[in-house]
Amino acid sequence: STYKSNFFYKCSCIEFFYLAELIQHFISTETNNISKRYFWINESLTWSRAQNYCRVNYTDLVSIKNETENQEIMKNAKNFPFWIGLFNNPWKWSDGGNSKFQNWRDEQPDNFHQLEKCVAFSQSNWNDDQCSSQNYFLCYNSKSSILLYCM
Ligand SMILES: [Ca+2]
């Protein structure tokens, strides 16, 4: 007779998806976004169209929670300026993150003509800009690559 290991618990699809969700949640919250990947979008859109594009095709516009991410995002930029997920002074991140990290350019944000409610990365720091401006942008994807397999 063949030896059957019971190390592999045979679970139903529902259980499996639930388990995968839990693991994914753990990866994105407990670890330092190990699974976060950045995607440069070489298309000029308004801030809200860029946000929508990222939400449909990836997770969201990038959020920048610390200097490490700030550097990482700068490395992924192919052009400046580009939209990031910060908007609507008092500033909020599009993905709901509540990081206090900020990297404003000198004398910014200036909310020029009271019309600047969206934030673009320009060169090495940030500037508030009109949301209707068309900029390139950077999306991120936090989905981990957990293989779903069930019978
Ligand atoms: Ca400005």
TrEMBL record:
It holds the Pfam family Lectin_C. The keyword Disulfide bond applies. InterPro entries: C-type_lectin-like, C-type_lectin-like/link_sf, C-type_lectin_CS, CTDL_fold. Residues 38-140 form the C-type lectin domain. Keywords: Disulfide bond. This is C-type lectin domain-containing protein. It comes from Erpetoichthys calabaricus.
